[in-house]
Amino acid sequence: MTLGLFDDAPAPYAAPKVIAPGAALLRGFALGVDEALLQAVEAVTAAAPLRHLVTPGGYTMSVAMSNCGALGWVSDRSGYRYDAKDPLSGKPWPAMPACFAELALRAAAEAGFDNFRPDACLINRYEPGARLSLHQDKDEGTMDAPIVSVSLGLPAVFLFGGLNRGDKPARYRLQHGDVAVWGGPSRLAHHGVAPLAQGEHARLGGRRINLTFRRAR
Ligand code: MD3
Ligand code: FE
Q1: Whose CA is nearest to atom 11 of ligand 1?
Q2: How many whole angstroms from 205 Cα to the centroid of ligand 1?
Q3: What is the per-residue pLDDT for 165?
Q4: Residue bearing the CA closest to ligand 1, atom 14
Q5: How far apart are CA 119 and CA 105, in angstroms?
Q6: Which ligand is nearest to the CA of 212?
Q7: What is the DSSP letter of 108?
Q8: Which of 13, 118, 172, 207 would be 28's cystine partner, CB 3.0–4.6 Å?
Q9: Measured between alpha carbons, how far is 30 from 20 in angstroms, rounded to an integer?
Q10: CB-CB neighbours of 60 under 10 Å
Q11: Could you tell me the pTM of the whole model?
């Protein structure tokens, strides 16, 4: 029962929590649209299946990936890059669903980045044990735009380091519906995801899905 002042508010959502200059956590921001996002993930991954990419060093990534939008992030023995086509099918990546683009635009604006129009959305699927070691996102052709990340399913420990690789990372537990925005002075911060713990999520079972929206060109 609420007092009526906020009857128009969607789901429980707290104001952005600034964790570093240019970096904000929007806890619960995606809760009103989570089911729409997940149905869109299912449609995208039916056309462009999740797969384990190989790194230039020859390791198979524990996170399974797919993409939608004009450009998709891919990795193989020759390197990391953005490509307009899915190398599995040779066809363009599925279009960015409207609910994806709208959520990314709203989240970026909430964190102070107006007019964010991502041309790439990477879909990451974690199963227990899957992780992302500390890295920077620097394959994009522009560093002017922020990155928006949406967490769905099982919670994960997100590692947020500094601009130097040796900076000891802070740890944040990201839950279903949480959105994070990273831009400006935080755009090149090191970050990663600790190995996913076992668990059971009501909608996604033993998995976590992360959507990463970027301006690649
Ligand atoms: C902090 N994925 O795919 S994006 C990735 O949970 C990746 O799957 C994370 O890192 C995941 O590259 C979520 C989080 C993120 C993205 C860009 C950043 C954090 C960032 C840029 C600067 C600082
Ligand atoms: Fe990253």
Answers
A1: 210
A2: 22
A3: 87
A4: 149
A5: 12
A6: 1
A7: H
A8: 13
A9: 21
A10: 9
A11: 0.94
| CA–centroid distance, residue 140 to ligand 2 (Å) | 11
**Within 13 Å, how many C-alpha atoms sit on residue 31's CB side?**
13
Domains of the chain in start order, with CATH, are 14-214 (2.60.120.590)
Whole-number Å distance between alpha carbons of 125 and 127? 7
Q: What is the DSSP string of 113-178?
A: -TT---SEEEEEEE-TT--EEEE----SS-SSS-EEEEEEES-EEEEE--SSTTSPPEEEEE-TT-
Ligand 1, atom 8, lies closest to the CA of 210
pLDDT tens across 156-209, in order?
A: 999 999 888 888 999 999 999 999 999 999 999 999 999 999 999 999 999 999
- Of 22-36, 100-114, 155-169, the one with minimum mean pLDDT is 155-169
40: left (phi over 0), alpha (psi -120 to 50) or beta: alpha
| Lining residues, ligand 1, CB within 6 Å | 122, 124, 132, 137, 147, 149, 182, 186-187, 189, 191, 193, 210, 212
Give kind and range of the element (H or E) at residue 37. helix 34-47
Distance CA 100, CA 108 (A): 12
